[in-house]
Structure formats: C-alpha cells, structure tokens
Amino acid sequence: MDKVRIAMIGAGGMANAVHYPSLAEMDDVEFAGICDLDPERLASTADRYGIDARFSDYRTMIEQTAPDAVYAIMPPHHVFDVAAWCLQQKQNLFIEKPPAVNAFQTRSLAAWAEQSGVKTMVAFNRRFIPVLVRAKELVCQRGEIIQCQASFLKNHLGGGPYYGGAIDILSCDAVHAVDALRWMGGEVAALASVVASYHLPFASAFNAVMRFESGATGVLQTNWSVGKRVHTFELHAAGISAFVDGNGDARIYTDNSEEPRVLVNTEVAGSTEFAHYYGYFAENRHFVDCIKSGRHPMPDLADAAKTMELVERIYASVI
Ligand SMILES: NC(=O)c1ccc[n+]([C@@H]2O[C@H](COP(=O)([O-])OP(=O)(O)OC[C@H]3O[C@@H](n4cnc5c(N)ncnc54)[C@H](O)[C@@H]3O)[C@@H](O)[C@H]2O)c1
User: Fold this and answer.
1) Ligand 1 atom 18: the closest Cα is on which residue?
2) Atom of ligand 1 nearest to the CA of 76
3) Fewer Cβ close by (within 10 Å): the C or N end of the chain?
4) What is the Cα–Cα distance from 183 to 174, expressed in whole angstroms?
5) Å from CA of 9 to ligand 1 middle
6) Among residues of the chain, what percentage have pLDDT more than 90?
7) Which residues span the domain enclosing 37?
8) What strands, in cross-sheet order, belong to the sheet with 4-9?
9) What per-residue confidence (pLDDT) applies to 107?
10) pLDDT digits (tens, 9 = 90+) for 249-269
11) Is the pTM of this model over 0.85?
C-alpha cells in the first residue's frame, strides 16, 4: 500500500487542531473524503486540505470512497452509532478519547471490531508524548517501575458539565490520567478513591491510590477546581525518578544526583508544533504504520475498554 486512503468523519475543533494537520504532513496518506453535518465546517476544512469528495452523510462517503481507514472525531455521546456502523462495514477505525460514554459501550465497539477483524485505535495521546515516552524508557532501563503518578489539574470554576451534562469529567477528560497510569503501571489489582465536588455542582476531583498487579503503587490526582491546567507524571524505579510535564520538560534524577538530567519536550519531539510535542502526530503515525504493515495498533478499543473499566472502579471504590 503506497498511500493509505483515509475518510474523515468530523471537521470540528480537535480534528482541525491536530488530526487533519498531522495526516496532511504524511506523504503516504491521502484524504479519501470528508464528512460533517455542519456545512461551514465541512467547506472550510475541505478547502484547507484540498479534499474534493465532500459529504454530509458518512455512510454515503464510505460506500462511495471505499477507504483504507476511517477517522470518526466527534464528542463521546455522538460517536457510538457512527463507530459501530463503520466497524460493521469492516472499516479500520480511529477515534478520539473517550471511546464512548462508558465501559459497556466501549466493550460493545470492541466486540464489533473483533467480529469484523479490523484494526482500531483510541487516541489516548499521552502514551505518545515524546518526552514522556523517553522518560519511561530511561526509567525502565534501570528497573521495573515501583511507583508512578498521574496528576491532571484544571480551573473549570464557573464552567458547566461537559457537553451540557452528556458525560462526566472523569470519563471524558481526567481519563487521560487514568489511562496514563495503566500505561505506566499495568493492570490494577486493588484501589481506593476519593471523588469530590469542589465549588462546582458536579464531581470535579478524582483521586485514587492503587496497587498494580506488578506490585507497584499508582497515584491519581485530578481536580478541576484549582489554579490552572497542570498535567504531570512521575515514574520511579530503584535509584531513578522522572518528573515529567508533557507541555514542558522531564527532569530525571538518579542515585541521589542534585542536578537532574533535563529532557526538553520540543527537543525530544524535534518540533515546536503542539501536535508533535504533545503526542498527536506520533499517535496518527502509529495508526497509519499499523494499517500499512498489518500490525495491531495500541491502544485499541479492547485496551481502551480496560481504561474505561478502571474509571468505573474509581467510582465504585470510594472510601
Ligand atoms: N486527546 C485530546 O487531548 C483531546 C482534546 C480535546 C478533545 N478531544 C476529544 O475529541 C473529540 C471531538 O471533540 P471536538 O471538541 O473536536 O468536537 P466538535 O464538536 O468540535 O467536533 C465534532 C464535529 O463532528 C461533527 N459531527 C457530529 N456527528 C456527526 C455525524 N454523525 N456525521 C458527521 N459529522 C458529525 C460535528 O458537526 C462537529 O463538527 C471528543 O471526543 C473529545 O473528547 C480530545
């Protein structure tokens, strides 16, 4: 396959911010068609990327363009029917996080993917942030991770519930930190959590301590009622600790060193473009490479279902 032909459903904010530009950079990708319900978004995105095959109905687009893969980039409460239909048509599928509103819907999509024998990917981009990937490699070179932390803080004070209340903050957004913990620590054997509402009329803080099956300890710290957006990760193994800010740098301390080894995210990514240093280009590249080579993308829908199940365990394990 010289060129991977991709049909795009959705020309909204996230797709335009990172997915269209990332795919457009790749010489081995071609947009087979574009679809959006909103005519202005459809026209402006199609014009920007020079896509002639324009549709308001995704079924018509896929039947007429017969793509190698489909992207469906839309809010979690809108994506299920679209994704399920694409999977039933045996289309390889890339979707954003969260893959659905809950674990049940995600498992249903994973089952359709399994039945159709197609490749799927859910865009948990933190797993692809170059400086975080590099820090994890360096820590794991020293030994098994024994402790890790994912912290995701935002100031959402005065804001409403996500998508008018269609989905909770933990499932929709703080889920990034939950998925990062699984990526760093593996599957969770046991956990205890605190879920709280601070100065907002819905749950805004989700904190947990967990024991991984490996024996390592994981800490989740998320709160949407605090000073500003700060999203950081810690990874520790015997004699090494990495403190990572995907928007900034990684500081790595070994053997009581006073001065850290500093990895700057834009240098590790080789780019000052947000889509590159925050993992979006790399996740798109991974999916395209898997379509070309026949390899299985990760995280796929089945793996994403485990992250959504962990979200539900956090709600079910409140102390
Ligand atoms: N990974 C990240 O860091 C990150 C950041 C922000 C958002 N997201 C995720 O990206 C996803 C999309 O969010 P967004 O803010 O870009 O949404 P959006 O509302 O801006 O865009 C969605 C687009 O899909 C179109 N659409 C909806 N249903 C359709 C259908 N049946 N057929 C054709 N078009 C349809 C809408 O008209 C809209 O233009 C969400 O799941 C969100 O959680 C991820």
Assistant:
1) 12
2) 41
3) C
4) 15
5) 9
6) 99
7) 4-124
8) 54-55, 29-35, 4-9, 69-72, 92-96, 120-123
9) 98
10) 999 999 999 999 999 999 999
11) yes
